[in-house]
Amino acid sequence: MTKAIALLSGGLDSTLAVKLMIEQGIEVHALNFTSAFCTCTSNGAKEGGCKSEAGRVAVEFGIPIKTLVKGLDYMEIVRRPRHGYGKGINPCVDCRIYMFRAAKKYMEEIGASFIITGEVLGQRPMSQRKDAFRVIERESGLEGLILRPLCAQHLEPTKPEIEGLVDRSRLPAIEGRSRKEQMALADDLGVNDYPCPSGGCLLTDKIFSKKVKDLLDNKPEFTLTKKDLSILRAGRHFRFNGVKVIVGRDASDNERLKSLIQSGQTLVEPDDFPGPVAIVASTQGNGALQFAAGLILKYSSGKGIAKGMIRATVDGGETFSFEVNTPISDESAEGARVC
């Protein structure tokens, strides 16, 4: 039986691409990529996000799935993309090349013949164009071996189509940003459960991109950690005299910040009043400790609090308390705000 590797996000498009291949008797092996920047794991999405959805689809279709994490090596692509950024700090073309190179390696490991994706011509402005497709295929070493079933009729035939491994006449001709044709196809194929019709990447978000850019501009690549990436999705971010200060937004955020604090950082908490916690990415501070304390007072839940005691834990060890008398002004906070 012919084998194919499917880039499966768990969204509607990639699910349909897999289903179309299964309908043609192709043995599909799914490859799922996760990162700190998937929108499906934020803002209230159910636990597990797209990784869980990809796993659910794999179980439903009875296909094997392998998950790869886009880790610190991927951050170097975000830092210096050869093909530039989109509207945020999203290196979409380089990202696709990164994933397809990994898929090519997996394809060779298991003896698969080609790779499929749920990409649709014209759906994404940076990476889902014919010229971008050609660049991605060439630089990933997969010319003629990437089949995009949903828009196949708009593209030149791939090797699996030419060689008769896939019946091109049974593939759709979807194009553009609308999902109406995909939803109709889902009905035809009996695909009824797709809670993430259109996944996305936080790197396309102009506001979130400010956090990422600030991190990359101020931290060398050899000191980046996984916690650096995770903490980007927590709290309000500031930079005071060159020092990063992060303040929690709510109780859940506070607990997350506490779990993500790293060596060489200071945890700052309200001692005798209700309020957020803060992380100061330094043990020296350069005034950042007092700035963080002022922010805690500013964002405290108590109304009319003009002063309070603050507790600081330095590098997970020494703890001391001090009084903060004045909340940080709106002007000072906005002047130091990253995002």
Overall description:
With 339 residues, this protein is α/β, with parallel strands linked by helices. The chain folds into 2 domains: 3-202, Rossmann fold; 234-336, no CATH class. It is built from 12 helices and 11 strands. It has helices at 12-23, 49-61, 72-79, 92-110, 130-140, 159-162, 180-189, 206-218, 226-230, 251-260, 288-298, 330-336; strands spanning 3-7, 27-34, 65-69, 114-116, 146-147, 236-240, 243-247, 266-270, 278-280, 308-314, 319-324. Strands 6-7-9-8-10-11 form a 6-stranded antiparallel beta sheet. Strands 3-2-1-4-5 form a 5-stranded parallel beta sheet, sandwiched between helices. Strand 8 and strand 9 (278-280) form a beta hairpin.
SSE topology sketch:
Blueprint: E1 3-7, H1 12-23, E2 27-34, H2 49-61, E3 65-69, H3 72-79, H4 92-110, E4 114-116, H5 130-140, E5 146-147, H6 159-162, H7 180-189, H8 206-218, H9 226-230, E6 236-240, E7 243-247, H10 251-260, E8 266-270, E9 278-280, H11 288-298, E10 308-314, E11 319-324, H12 330-336
Parallel strand pairs: 1-2, 1-4, 2-3, 4-5
Antiparallel strand pairs: 6-7, 7-9, 8-9, 8-10, 10-11
Helix pairs in contact: 1-7, 4-5
Percent of residues in helices:
25-40%
Strand content: 15-25%
Morphology call:
elongated
CATH superfamily of the largest domain: HUPs
Overall number of structural domains: 2
Number of strands: 11
Major sheet: arrangement of strands: 6-7-9-8-10-11
Treating each run of at least 4 consecutive H or I residues as one helix, how many helices? 12
Q: Strand count, sense and closure of the main sheet?
A: 6 strands, antiparallel
Provide the structure class. Answer: alpha/beta
